[in-house]
């Protein structure tokens, strides 16, 4: 389908825009975001949109970034879009949080876009993910063992984030750019075989297309089906949590043990993930961790506990079931020379020693 028509259809299908909004475009200078900027400019007259664009410099490709910024600025000038750019420090976040560069870059990019959107008053931020990206993401998550939630793919809408090109194919995008005479930058990191996504794009998907020429569309439909089912499960899990939660604070959540033990695995896994997400991040929490918690719920003895990543501790009590997320307090050894009172501020307690007899 023509990219312009497909984008208009996607926007309407997922209710991304109603008209009259200010929209920030995440612009990298690559083909997808360049197409997005042009297509939204064409649709802006019909939808009464005010467009802005922002480039995030991750500091990872200093030899390519200046040319990309220049490319973005020139495109925005030709389209009449206000353009800004910012720099983030990926290496610093990697050092401070111990995460990989790709994860750090993603986290900082979204934060920078959020700040840019706030600065220009944009209520929506448009990203250039395509149907091809959706298919690649699905395969990546299959390989890594994701559950149904992960396999539901890249959401077309999440909060203020919209992805108008999520129903469009890469060949159609390249043809659109060629027809419009719009140039674009090529990110050298997209050509490196060390990244899984690139290997899938360059080797696996072409092989699958020999078996099923419509494999990208097929995988796209699969993610839509799974996303619909996840929305249903989200409602069911919400209902279950409303019955199960007995106490909730910033650093812990307590669940009724007996009804939790009787839940079907499909609901129980989701309940536990949501319960943990209520008080901490799910980052580094995988299938094996959830299975370990399920085993504790059903087979553990009262008082048994397990430690999870990010200092999360899960404790089985007689009732309820406790998931505290505050790190444990480590106390230094203290001595008392004689009778008196010893205050232990970290534990919020005092010890009094007396001589009797």
Automatic annotation (TrEMBL):
Question: Which cellular component appears as one GO term in the record?
Answer: cytoplasm
InterPro entries in the cross-refs: Rossmann-like_a/b/a_fold, TilS/TtcA_N, tRNA_Ile_lys_synt, tRNA_Ile_lys_synt_N, tRNA_Ile_lys_synt_subst-bd
Q: Where does the tRNA(Ile)-lysidine/2-thiocytidine synthase N-terminal domain lie?
A: 22-203
Query: What is the uppermost EC class here?
Result: ligase
Q: What is its EC number?
A: 6.3.4.19
User: Which reaction(s) are listed as its catalytic activity?
Assistant: cytidine(34) in tRNA(Ile2) + L-lysine + ATP = lysidine(34) in tRNA(Ile2) + AMP + diphosphate + H(+)
Tell me where in this chain the tRNA(Ile)-lysidine synthase substrate-binding domain is found: 258-309
What Gene Ontology molecular function terms does this protein carry? ATP binding; tRNA(Ile)-lysidine synthase activity
Please list the coiled coil stretches: none
One Pfam family assigned to this protein is ATP_bind_3
Q: Which UniProt keywords apply?
A: ATP-binding, Cytoplasm, Ligase, Nucleotide-binding, tRNA processing
A GO biological process of this protein is:
tRNA processing
Q: Sorted alphabetically, which NCBIfam families does this protein's record hold?
A: lysidine_TilS_N (TIGR02432)
Protein name, entry field = tRNA(Ile)-lysidine synthetase
State the organism of origin. marine sediment metagenome
């Amino acid at each position: 389908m023509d990219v312009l028509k497909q984008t208009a259809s996607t926007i309407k299908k997922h209710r991304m825009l109603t008209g009259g909004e200010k929209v920030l475009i995440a612009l990298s200078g690559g083909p997808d975001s360049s197409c997005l900027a042009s297509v939204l400019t064409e649709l802006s007259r019909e939808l009464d949109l005010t467009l802005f664009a922002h480039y995030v410099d991750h500091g990872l490709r200093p030899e390519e970034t200046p040319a990309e910024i220049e490319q973005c600025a020139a495109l925005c000038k030709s389209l009449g879009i206000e353009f800004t750019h910012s720099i983030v420090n990926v290496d610093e976040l990697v050092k401070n949080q111990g995460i990989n560069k790709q994860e750090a870059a993603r986290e900082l990019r979204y934060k920078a876009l959020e700040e840019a959107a706030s600065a220009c008053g944009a209520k929506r931020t448009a990203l250039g993910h395509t149907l091809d990206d959706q298919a690649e993401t699905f395969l990546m998550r299959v390989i890594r063992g994701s559950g149904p939630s992960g396999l539901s793919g890249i959401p077309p809408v999440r909060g203020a984030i919209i992805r108008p090109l999520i129903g469009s194919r890469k060949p159609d995008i390249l043809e659109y750019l060629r027809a419009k005479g719009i140039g674009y930058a090529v990110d050298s990191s997209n050509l490196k075989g060390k990244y899984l996504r690139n290997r899938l794009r360059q080797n696996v998907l072409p092989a699958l297309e020999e078996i099923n020429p419509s494999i990208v569309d097929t995988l796209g439909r699969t993610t839509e089906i799974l996303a619909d089912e996840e929305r249903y499960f989200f409602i069911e899990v919400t209902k279950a949590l409303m019955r199960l939660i007995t106490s909730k604070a910033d650093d812990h959540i307590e669940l009724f043990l007996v009804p939790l033990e009787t839940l079907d695995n499909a609901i129980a896994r989701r309940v536990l993930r949501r319960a943990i997400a209520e008080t901490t991040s799910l980052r580094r929490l995988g299938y094996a961790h959830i299975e370990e918690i399920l085993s504790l719920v059903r087979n553990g003895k009262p008082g048994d506990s397990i430690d999870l990543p990010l200092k999360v501790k899960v404790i089985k009590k007689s009732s309820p079931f406790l998931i505290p997320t505050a790190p444990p307090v480590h106390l230094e050894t203290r001595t008392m020379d004689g009778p008196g009172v010893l205050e232990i501020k970290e534990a919020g307690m005092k010890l009094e020693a007396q001589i009797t007899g």
